Amino acid sequence: LKLEADLRRAIERGEFRVHYQPKLALDGFERRPEAEPPLLPPRIVGMEALVRWEHPEDGLIPPARFVPLAEETGLIVPMGRWVLEEACRRAVEWQALRPSEPPLTMSVNLSARQFEDPGLVEDVARILRETGLDPRHLTVEITESVSMKDARSAVGTLRELKSLGVCLAIDDFGTGYSSLAYLHRFPADFLKIDRSFVGGLGEGPEEKGLVPGVVGLAHTLGMKAIAEGVETAEQLARLREMGCDLAQGFYFSRPLPGEAIPALLSEYA
Ligand code: G
Ligand code: G
Ligand code: NA
Ligand code: MN
After folding, report:
1. pLDDT tens across 51-76, in order?
2. Is the CB of 65 under 6 A from ligand 2?
3. 191 CB under 6 A from ligand 1?
4. ipTM of the complex
5. Which of 177, 192, 223, 254 minimizes the number of CB atoms within 10 Å of its CB?
6. Burial class of 100 by CB neighbour count within 10 A (0 to 12, 13 to 18, 19+)
């Protein structure tokens, strides 16, 4: 109960922080079928915004410990607006650091309550306008379970978001119960392979077969595949072999405070 009261005050007091984890393009992204190209080093092409709460007494609290409560109380909606605004502002700032590179993209997570909020599309449009971020450089991530909870109405909301020009990602794919009938109607751009599958790469034959299967499914549906939770060079090598487009994980970088990102960008330039 104290946590709930604290959470209510956290927005007014500005206690939320956003950390950012880079998304890297693997070589498969630009592979030409005729040539056997040398492997280019992975390049940072985007960031995922991940919220934290800097509690005055308890220190930095991870989202697993307060997002469910924020969701229950509805506080996730104003909190999410703040995260989105902060992330879009940062994206514009960091794009300016690399004027000759393709513009860095920003990904933001939306929970069920946010996704169902009738003001969502208007909020996203307003924040894009106010921050000046090109809609094409924003990706909204919703989990497979949120997208399938009421798949018919989800398709409608996804289409509205899409009509703003933003990109869409289906997060934690493989952990929910997807209907392939709906999945192929989702106007999504990215399919994020849950890290529990990526962690199994290099183990038994079943685990080995699953990830290329999902990469193939993404491509069949006209989406790019993103592997989450890449922790080892071996996992990265497997993912490149199977043509996975993008990767995220501790192997490249943990989520970092915004202040640390300019240095990270020059390290991977
Ligand atoms: O940051 P961490 O690696 O602990 O993320 C854990 C979970 O919290 C992830 O499932 C992620 O989707 C969720 N999460 C992180 N940031 C946000 C956010 O800004 N909004 C919402 N709705 N969920 C988030
Ligand atoms: O939205 P999502 O639930 O996918 O959020 C990503 C979560 O995964 C965050 O909690 C982030 O800190 C965590 N994460 C990111 N990279 C790795 C990784 O390589 N290994 C593990 N175990 N967790 C990771
Ligand atoms: Na996510
Ligand atoms: Mn995920």
Report:
1. 999 999 999 999 999 999 999 999 99
2. no
3. no
4. 0.96
5. 177
6. exposed
